[in-house]
Amino acid sequence: xxxxxxxxxxxxxxxxxxxxxxxxxxxxxxxxxxxxxxxxxxxxxxxxxxxxxxxxxxxxxxxxxxxxxxxxxxxxxxxxxxxxxxxxxxxxxxxxxxxxxxxxxxxxxxxxxxxxxxxxxxxxxxxxxxxxxxxxxxxxxxxxxxxxxxxxxxxxxxxxxxxxxxxxxxxxxxxxxxxxxxxxxxxxxxxxxxxxxxxxxxxxxxxxxxxxxxxxxxxxxxxxxxxxxxxxxxxxxxxxxxxxxxxxxxxxxxxxxxxxxxxxxxxxxxxxxxxxxxxxxxxxxxxxxxxxxxxxxxxxxxxxxxxxxxxxxxxxxxxxxxxxxxxxxxxxxxxxxxxxxxxxxxxxxxxxxxxxxxxxxxxxxxxxxxxxxxxxxxxxxxxxxxxxxxxxxxxxxxxxxxxxxxxxxxxxxxxxxxxxxxxxxxxxxxxxxxxxxxxxxxxxxxxxxxxxxxxxxxxxxxx
Length: 463
Fold this sequence. Notes:
It comes from Gilliamella apicola. This protein has 14 helices and 14 strands.
């Protein structure tokens, strides 16, 4: 079996505009849903037009002004790919404008040019846990069919603007997260009914398909994929009830991939909708739009969990309610560490969809310590990533077509769940404290040099 990765394998890292850029109201940018949850996904929603607040995401790590320095560090590690996102509200501040904001468009021109100067391929997410807050307050978020039109206009604008610079695109980040955090995903209140959430999700799925069609038309040599939160569950026991409960739980998130990769709603959702009194409004045009399918499947993977018919065993995790696996250890944040799970997930997705796969988020959040000499000895991160990359290589040897790997947070950033900077993922340490103090100076961690060696050897130095 090969002990190196394919020569065309894309190596890099992944960031999101709202977690690194800062400059939240600079150069004409409008307020996003992320700006209005300053304390993360679990924080209270704030109308910043009425309340003056300051959140750590407002400045974040100031990537908006420091991107040349950071891109140069990524290039030094050997990145051939960087996943980032465009802030929708930099392009259309309210979301419903007829004309885009030129200053916002110009920023991403400069960012992509900087990446290409260093031979780093951009992988760009159209919407990463954010949308214009105005579309929530004035239109009801994705619950309103009009938002499909607004998103389509936005997608068309950026495809036309960056068609010569960006050849890899994603539509919505972790699209299945809307079931658990509807405000973050579709701009609906947390107490919204299942029917309302699934109707909003339907509108988003239609918008995704329309964006895929536009991408195929405007950039024929581009590839566009979806993005799933890979929340794979194993049966807690071999009891048939647990096996079936796990099968049903996995359907809950695989459903999104089924629609986006196959072009229609899977039959197993019919019973679910019926049992939950959900009647979706789906037009003939919607069904036609959904037939435009993605070119590849991308996903995040941080942990696995267990499925069981006994709901009393569920524990509140970072975002999802999970049943822990008694055979796995966990990180400082309670995320169970399961490297073999990524091999299992890669095989499962490839067998199910028979499309290329791209791992666009994977990493370990930890409390790193900056030493007096400016070093960070993060062997725990190296061990975590080594073990996962070994299993990815095994999946490739299994015959799975894997396009690339972009680790989550190659530079320390603000976490999505609780807007924490103490939960660090990066190979690059950023001098920033939770109270917003710090110089923002960048330091290379031990893992920086480790990842550099992995990329240069195409994985041959994995242990």
